[in-house]
Amino acid sequence: MATVTFRDETATGRPLNEFALPDLPESISARELVRLRVREEVARFNAAPSARFNGLVRPLDAEAELNGYRTNDGAGRRVDWERQADVAERAFRRNGFVLLVGERQIDDLSETIDLTADPVVSFIKLVPLVGG
Question: What percent of the chain has pLDDT over 90?
């Protein structure tokens, strides 16, 4: 079993947020890894709801803030992890974020990743430029 560190970074490599998840299989597809990350962050939010959600993708009806999302209804709101995971997959396919395992960029969600060789998985959100 492997322990993986999920890290959100800026495009310049500055860490924004990070958490570790133990007991993962040694080999996993990129799709399963993204969905697992989303499931974990949603489970943490749902266990202790707040007015702010820090996650890979914005929950429905939440407003973007610096390094997170403000939920409109505050505490008590539950987020559907499967819906969030589906949104994350679509965002990956549209280049909404870059997925790095170790120093290697993952281009295909079906790619198999060896977590024992590369236990750090970085997510870099790509922000569209305003004004063209």
Answer: 55
